[in-house]
Amino acid sequence: MVPGGKSRKDIRPGLEVAIVLKQDQRTGKRTRGIVKDILTNSPSHPHGIKVRLTDGQVGRVQEIGKPEEQ
């Protein structure tokens, strides 16, 4: 995965991302999923663009793309 997610133009529905859910902001725990909707209207956001995943979870994008092979 590539760090990013602060610019709306880099995110589109169907993209695999890692987000931080509201309840996980203190720990920074990331949740992976596929973008269903982009909820942030502004072109950028310092904490990450807010999205809804296909499973309904909402959070701010921290990484974009598939996880890198270990």
The share of residues in helices is: under 10%
The rough form would be described as: globular
In DSSP terms (H or I, runs of 4 or more residues), the helix count works out at 0
Please write the string of helix (H) and strand (E) elements: EEEEE
Largest sheet: 5 strands, antiparallel
Alpha-carbon distance between the two ends: 12 Å
List how many beta strands DSSP finds. Answer: 5
Give the uncertain stretches in residue-range form.
none
Q: What portion of residues belong to β-strands?
A: 35-45%
What is the mean pLDDT? 92
Name the structural class. mainly beta
Q: What Rg do the Cα atoms give?
A: 11 Å
Give a written overview of the molecule.
The chain has about 70 residues and is mainly β. The chain has no helices and 5 strands. The chain has strands at about 1-5, 15-20, 30-40, 50-55, 60-65. Strand 2 and strand 3 form a beta hairpin. About 25% of the residues are buried.
Q: Which key phrases capture this entry?
A:
single chain; mainly beta; globular; 70 residues
Helix and strand topology:
Elements: E1 2-3, E2 16-21, E3 30-38, E4 50-53, E5 58-64
Antiparallel strand pairs: 1-5, 2-3, 2-5, 3-4, 4-5
What's a concise summary of this model?
The protein is mainly β.
